[in-house]
Amino acid sequence: MFELISLPYGAKDLEPVISAQTLSFHHGKHLQAYVDNLNKLLPGSGLSEDLSLEEIVCKANPAGGASANQAVFNNAGQILNHNLYFTQFCKGGKALEDGAFKAQIVRQWGGVEAFQAEFVAKGVGLFGSGWVWLSRDANGSLVITQEAGASNPVVRGLKPLLTFDVWEHAYYLDYQNRRAAHLDALWQILDWSVIEKRYK
Question: What pLDDT is stored for residue 193 in this prediction?
Answer without folding.
Answer: 96
